[in-house]
Amino acid sequence: MTALHLAMLFGLAAMASTKVIIQGSFGRKLLRSSSDAIFYNGMLFGIAAAFTALPLPWGGLSLSGVTAIYGLFFGLCSILFQFSYAGAFKYGSVALTVLISNCSSVIPIMVGVVFLNESLSASRAVGIIFFFLSFALSVKFGSRPEAKVNVKWSLLTLVCFCANGALAVAQKLHQQTEFKAERAGFVFVAYALAAVVSFSIYFILKRKAAQGKTFTVSAGTLISLLAAGAVLGYFQKTLLFLASVMNAAVLFPTVNSLIMVITTFCGIFLFKDRLSKRQMLGIVMGIVGIAFISL
């Protein structure tokens, strides 16, 4: 891994953490129902799609049929992931759901090693083990009845795991094609589809179940959405680029681990979250994993 690639990974994690912080600060104040979350995500996806379509000096939007297919697949997997993730939280353990979702990075790793002939050195394998240990230690398990495993939670978590892994695989495979430079087109199609589906679900809920949003889109909310949407769009474009030049075994576990470390510290300083010794050990494990992956 070159110093430039490592710097880009930290930049990606910083972008993703910024998006999480923006959504977290406004989400705690605004989102009180599933309709609120669906409407908010629809706007977020739409802004991300619009941002990637802008004719920027360093590259505009180009789109082939191949990129459109990959983008549509990515968009569908994004929707599956969001809804299964939220559903799993409702029916089972939040901590186990987060852990299993993060472990889905094993899917693009196996695809890269088995089908794309990517190498997996001993140091990288050790780093991946440290990442999984980090995820396991960082989540907080509870003994409440709702934390027990049940069929609905198991099925939703399986969908969540597969969809999250498929997102990374779609990015990796697209970057193996001759149309890999069409990153803006890929992200535009994916998030335009996600926005359309989100708004469709919202209006169906509003009409049939009288479940409209409970918040107004103020200037502050709109600014937060614009910032988060722009970050999301640029994050995916950059991640696509790195998927073309880095092994999946390095890219996806490292990004996930860095995001976890950064958002954890931001939670401590910005939202006054408190960590147990076990969770602090998990952060240390994540940092050690990054060191091994970088060798």
- Beta-strand content: under 5%
Given helix and strand content, the structural type is: mainly alpha
What is the H/E string? HHHHHHHHHHH
Mean pLDDT: 81
What is the share of helical residues? over 70%
Report the radius of gyration as a whole number of Å: 19 Å
Query: What is the number of helical segments per DSSP (H or I, 4+ residues)?
Result: 11
Silhouette: globular
* Span of the ends, CA to CA: 7 Å
Return residue spans where pLDDT drops below 50 for at least 5 consecutive residues.
Answer: 143-147
Major pleated sheet: none
Number of strands: 0
Quaternary state, please? single chain
Could you provide a short overview of the structure?
78% of the residues lie in helices and 0% in strands. By secondary structure, it is mainly alpha-helical.
Descriptive overview:
With about 300 residues, the chain is mostly helical. It is built from 11 helices and no strands. The chain has helices at about 5-30, 35-55, 65-90, 95-100, 105-115, 120-140, 150-175, 185-210, 220-245, 250-270, 275-295. Helix 5 packs across helix 7 (about 150-175), helix 6 (about 120-140) runs antiparallel to helix 11 and helix 8 (about 185-210) packs across helix 9 (about 220-245). The termini are close together.
Key terms:
globular; mainly alpha; 295 residues; 78% helix
Task: Describe how the helices and strands are arranged.
Blueprint: H1 3-30, H2 34-53, H3 65-91, H4 94-102, H5 106-115, H6 122-138, H7 151-174, H8 183-208, H9 219-245, H10 248-270, H11 277-294
Helix pairs in contact: 1-9, 1-10, 2-8, 2-9, 3-4, 3-7, 3-8, 4-7, 5-7, 5-10, 6-10, 6-11, 8-9, 10-11
